[in-house]
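Fold Annotation — chain and its backbone

Fields — amino acid sequence, structure tokens

___
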Amino acid sequence: MEIDNLVSKNTPAWRFQTIISFLLSFILTISGILYMPADLWVKGFVLMGLIFTVGSSFTLAKTLRDDYEAHKLVNRIQSAKTEKILKDFEA
């Protein structure tokens, strides 16, 4: 099994689209907060909420991805052990 088959790769176009989408949504949301007709402390509170939400979203996505990758690795190891046992049994 080749290593390229084990690693899924995103295309440069997909990476570009996701980065631009994130930056655009973040900048437009911050602009909306800054131009919101409210006191400075209200704007600060909403901005703080936005920043914590974005940070925790990154953390959640990374945690879920890491759990998924670990589960894939465990399954690959178990499959390899099973194949070895079957080969040893057949021989």
Observations:
- The chain has a mean pLDDT of 86.
- Residues 10-90 form one domain.
- The chain has one domain: 10-90.
- Residues 46 and 52 are 10 Å apart (CA to CA).
